[in-house]
Write a structure and sequence with these properties.
Layout: E1 14-15, E2 22-23, H1 25-42, E3 51-55, H2 60-75, E4 81-88, H3 95-109, E5 113-117, H4 118-122, H5 126-133, H6 138-157, E6 161-163, H7 168-181, H8 184-189, E7 194-196, E8 202-204, H9 212-221, H10 239-252, H11 256-266, E9 279-280, E10 287-288, H12 294-303, H13 314-326, H14 331-335, H15 352-355
Parallel strand pairs: 3-4, 3-6, 4-5, 6-8
Antiparallel strand pairs: 1-2, 7-8, 9-10
Helix pairs in contact: 2-9, 7-10, 7-11
The chain binds iron/sulfur cluster (SF4).
Iron/sulfur cluster is lined by residues 89, 126, 138-139, 142-143, 231, 233-234, 237.
Main location: cytoplasm
Protein name: Cytoplasmic tRNA 2-thiolation protein 1
Domain Cytoplasmic tRNA 2-thiolation protein 1 C-terminal: 280-309
Length: 361
């Protein structure tokens, strides 16, 4: 049994995936927590006296984030008020169970918890959306809706920051994904540790440089309770391909994760590149690069029986929206009128179902 490389005199019980150091449990905890503290202070993520909503899914990342933020807040006197914010996507056998874990975290960490549901916000659960769209592109709906739901929850709670559990592996995967997709706009901002939600509440990533394997190790040795089942709709997520690639590369050289993040941070998009201009959605006022934001387009598609609206080129979406407008069947009047009976492209008749349309307002 080797001695702990931090020279504490104890035996090492683990090898850090990030650095290869052999450490005892206590020295690992200290190294892990100090690195998160360093990330927070170096990037000046929080101002004292502010309120932070922790996006809590019940998974390992958000559970460790909540635990470590509470610990660091007390140890280093950040003077922050911490609250938990969860999104219920309505995925049976996944989110319902993971929310039980979040409720346990709420009690254990003594933090208030707010749960926002897709059903309340959009009128649809992910189970219902998958029944319409199938198992391809479902994560597009889920991701777009979740992002907005978190911002709405943060606004409702009147918090100053929204902290998410994105870890180093997530960021590296996102860099790879944006390169593979040629998405310059996202590539340009995906490594930022602080991003603007568009509603004035900054999103921060305190675990940005923390390896996923170390998060799992930390949760294991700290005996934290978290939910580890994968989403039932996950296997078809495009991100999964980037994840497999990254895991294969990590086996060859663990530093590949940090290298990809640092490469992403150093990238500068050429000024002549065609970048989207951010504006406000004409319907829900949410920040968007289009006249109508992605969430409103996806929702309109669902509500009008055109679930593929918003999947694909924005020019095609614009044309369909304009054609619907010409048919005097805009979403506002149509969807708020019971049984209006107007024809919409691809839909035989409006039905009562449309009367319950929940365009984001
Ligand atoms: Fe949503 Fe897809 Fe994640 Fe499941 S895997 S929670 S459907 S984004």
């Amino acid at each position: 049994m080797p001695l702990c490389s931090a020279n504490c005199g104890s035996n090492a019980i683990l090898k850090r995936p990030k650095t290869g150091d052999a450490l005892c449990k206590e020295c690992f905890f200290e190294a892990f927590e100090n690195e998160v503290h360093f990330t927070i202070t170096k990037a000046r993520l929080f101002e004292p006296g502010k309120t932070v909503a922790i996006a809590a899914s019940g998974g390992k990342d958000s559970t460790v984030l909540a635990y470590v933020l509470k610990l660091l807040n007390e140890k280093f006197k950040y003077n922050l008020k911490l609250v938990l914010l969860s999104i219920d996507e309505g995925i049976t056998g996944y989110r319902d169970d993971s929310l039980d874990t979040v409720k346990k975290n709420r009690d254990d960490y003594e933090m208030p918890l707010k749960i926002m549901s897709y059903k309340d916000l959009y009128g649809w659960t992910m189970d219902e959306i998958v029944a319409e769209i199938g198992r391809k592109n479902n994560c597009t709906f889920c991701g777009v809706f979740r992002r907005q739901a978190l911002d709405r929850g943060a606004n409702l709670l009147k918090v100053d920051y929204l902290a998410t559990g994105h870890n180093a592996d997530d960021i590296a995967e996102t860099v790879l994904m944006n390169i593979l997709r040629g998405d310059l706009a996202r590539l340009n901002r995906c490594t930022s540790i602080i991003t603007d939600s568009g509603d004035g509440i900054p999103r921060v990533k305190p675990l940005k440089y923390t390896y996923e394997k170390e998060i799992v190790m930390y949760a294991y040795f700290r005996k934290l309770i978290y939910f580890s089942t994968e989403c039932v709709f996950a296997p078809n997520a495009y991100r999964g391909h980037a994840r497999v690639l990254l895991k294969d590369l990590e086996k060859i050289d663990p530093s590949v994760i940090m290298n990809i993040i640092q490469s992403g941070e150093s990238l500068k998009v050429n000024e002549t590149a065609n970048m989207p201009t951010l504006t406000k959605c004409s319907r829900c006022n949410y920040v968007s690069s289009q006249t109508v934001c992605k969430a409103c387009v996806l929702l309109e598609g669902l509500n009008k029986g055109l679930p593929r609206l918003g999947i694909g080129k924005s020019s095609k979406v614009k044309r369909i929206l304009e054609e619907n407008e010409k048919k005097n069947c805009d979403s506002t009047s149509c969807c708020r009128t019971n049984n209006c009976k107007k024809d919409i492209e691809g839909v035989e008749k409006c039905t009562d179902k449309l009367s319950s349309v929940n365009l984001i307002k």
